[in-house]
Amino acid sequence: MATIKDVAARAGVAVGTASRVLSGSPQTSPDSRSRVLAAAAELGYIANGPARSLRRARTDVLGLLVSDIRNPFFSELAHAAEQEARAHGYTVILANANEDAAQADAVLDVFASQRIDGLLLSPQGPKTPRLEALLASDLPIVLLNRSIEGVDAPLYGTDNAGGVAQALKWLQRRGHRDVAFIGGPETFSTGAERHDAYLAGREAHGICTDDALVDAGDFLADGAAEAMLRILDRGALPTAVFGANGQTTLGAMRAVHERLGAEAASLIEFVSFDDVEWFAFMSPPVSAVKNDAPEIGRAGVRGLLALINGGTATSQRIATTFIDRSAGSAA
Amino acid sequence: MATIKDVAARAGVAVGTASRVLSGSPQTSPDSRSRVLAAAAELGYIANGPARSLRRARTDVLGLLVSDIRNPFFSELAHAAEQEARAHGYTVILANANEDAAQADAVLDVFASQRIDGLLLSPQGPKTPRLEALLASDLPIVLLNRSIEGVDAPLYGTDNAGGVAQALKWLQRRGHRDVAFIGGPETFSTGAERHDAYLAGREAHGICTDDALVDAGDFLADGAAEAMLRILDRGALPTAVFGANGQTTLGAMRAVHERLGAEAASLIEFVSFDDVEWFAFMSPPVSAVKNDAPEIGRAGVRGLLALINGGTATSQRIATTFIDRSAGSAA
DNA sequence: CTGTTAGCGCCTTCAC
DNA sequence: GTGAAGGCGCTAACAG
């Protein structure tokens, strides 16, 4: 693989000149510029990133740590973040933590070793040792989606209260009184915020305040199914179910189908925080609060780049959109 | 950030000794070993990856280029590939090409600059200039999911013929004769293979061979919807529809619902190449050929690592599983 | 505007 | 088993 020395030799200039031309420094004559560029093209020269990173003490690489890339929310977010970063000349290294603190720490070590210029973090739970170390260092960090206690990095996330309000309004418009709410873990800020917003708003929207109708899972399908079964076991028969995220809605629906059968299930309307295209074809169709995952990813990258460039970044809540697929709706 | 020099000084040994200890060389005394390790821990030492890469002329980084990370198939594949790579001490850089050759080339440049040790590639279309250059170099490469003309790198992908055969058997068992098939682009090997397997096998499974029932989209929902409409416009009224991938099934279903209404749509059974959990709750439930995306990702990484280590790798077709959700089925 | 050179942090050979 | 030193490819500082 050709080095800058080869390029310089072929162009008949010194390495310094070649370096200046290739990194776009203005201090170069048109003559050497064209000769260096030509030589580089002929040799198929591609700069050695590690060498450049070593010398410049920066890598132009951002680390993105998500809890589970298979979650559509995160895969859309990651996609958008990568696009935004590349538009600014940065590369993104993506890693999963699998909702596991030990894996998260292993990944953070890799990131540290790679000397990433900044970290986009969607935290799993409480602070881990590696994370503490990173926070103590001067590595620029922004939080995505979930906040974490004792960390004051800027947060880019969904407007959970706003999203729940949209769902509540829809429930009221549809005339639902007996609504089951399946939340997520209180230890996740997203779980807590959605839960709190629901409890705070239900009465004003004409929804029964019996807490027998409220339970929580773990934001995964199985946990949500169990929560739904607990509600049914208490003798409640809701006319609508509100799932606090996509997997939760899936689990709740599975529980309802298995316990009550498809026919009875079709009498229950589901609303979901997190939208899925297939909702249009369920019976009845499922309406949903749609997260703007791409915008969260882009805003997070912009904030992080501001931090990297010595500026400041402020937390941002990205608005949700309500997708109404109920019978009477225009769509 | 602490360097190996700091560690050596604190441990009272030479940098060479520190390096040997930290990289697990056996030629170290227990004494210096423990002192170096202690010093490293106290300093929170994490080796500088770029410096190490520069010196060793390898990075322990693999590049993974997929056409669209938002596609669940690829997000699962990427997740598994990353896990497998990490288990072997490698880091994965993930990038999207957005089904766009120019973006793919931009990404390949970044990969080349990062001096990745190997490339996992899910090609979009024909060879691009950058890809040609990479193939000409001695960079180890494996193909994922799709093959590409004129490239003889090992391919790790779905057993398309086997998957189609599973669907055909199911269609026969369900007694369907008038089956619509919505394929993907012939320019993708996956599209061509599924299409060919369907045409070759339909007659033997008692399915009508009228080509008015066959059309192709672009593996995206909109294109598939248009293909479905073309079939309906020809006056055909299938009792079952076979979508050649997940988005295709989505588009076909949308077209059927919009054109015929929900009631008539519920008389048509859908089968899909690519499984989605929500299929269980459609009416009627959708059966599907489930790709083993995680295994494809793992096998690809294993093959690539074999190549990197100077061994050989052979193409592999990963078996599919049929998920039968039809009325009479046990599930 | 250009050439020369030091040195980023690490590994590895070469002596001892 | 250990210390000393060179050099990977690049950029930036310094002369000219």
UniProtKB/TrEMBL annotation, chains A, B:
Q: Which residues form the HTH lacI-type domain?
A: 2-56
Record's Pfam families? LacI (PF00356), Peripla_BP_1 (PF00532)
Q: Domain of life, per the record?
A: Bacteria
Q: Which InterPro entries match?
A: HTH_LacI (IPR000843), Lambda_DNA-bd_dom_sf (IPR010982), Peripla_BP/Lac1_sug-bd_dom (IPR001761), Peripla_BP_I (IPR028082)
- Which keywords appear in this protein's UniProt record, sorted alphabetically? DNA-binding, Repressor, Transcription, Transcription regulation
Give the matching SMART domains: HTH_LACI
Which SUPFAM superfamilies would you find in this protein's record? Answer: lambda repressor-like DNA-binding domains, Periplasmic binding protein-like I
Q: Which GO terms describe its molecular function?
A: DNA-binding transcription factor activity; transcription cis-regulatory region binding
UniProt xrefs under PANTHER family: HTH-TYPE TRANSCRIPTIONAL REPRESSOR PURR-RELATED (PTHR30146:SF148), LACI-RELATED TRANSCRIPTIONAL REPRESSOR (PTHR30146)
Q: This chain belongs to which protein, by name?
A: LacI family transcriptional regulator
Q: Which organism is it from?
A: Glycomyces artemisiae
For this protein's source organism, the top of the classification is: Bacteria, Bacillati, Actinomycetota, Actinomycetes, Glycomycetales
